[in-house]
Amino acid sequence: LKEENAILRSKINKLQILSETQADKMRKLEKKLEENKIKEEKEAQDLEAMVQHVEQNLQLMTKRAVKAENSAAKLRQENALLQAELRNSQLENEALRAGRAGLAAAKQNAEVALQHLLRVTTSSRASIRQLLSGAESLQLVADLLKSIDRISEVSEDGQ
What we know:
Layout: H1 2-99, H2 103-158
Helix pairs in contact: 1-2
């Protein structure tokens, strides 16, 4: 009976040690689970902040693109007016040349109109280049947002 009692005590001690070991493992796993939850929450917040930043950049680029489009339209309109003015000046120049009266004044008017037209044309080209650059930037941001959506979908599927 004493021998059987000693065996049972030994088994009880082993089971207590096993129980304590498993309790330690359980505590460690619970701690790790909590750390993972905190890490996931931080990653989600970081991702949300990045999405908000991208959205702000997209809004800013959209405003710039609209402004560039408006500027380009205004410059095109001004360009058309200046071209009409140039044609009128050229017609006036031809009429003055035919009559030989005021030829120098007409040439000067035509030259001034031509210089103004060239300046506007150069400015229009720069604005159009800026508009195209803004459109490329918007496309890049749109592609980035698509990528973020894909990452979010993969993350949700993985959980």
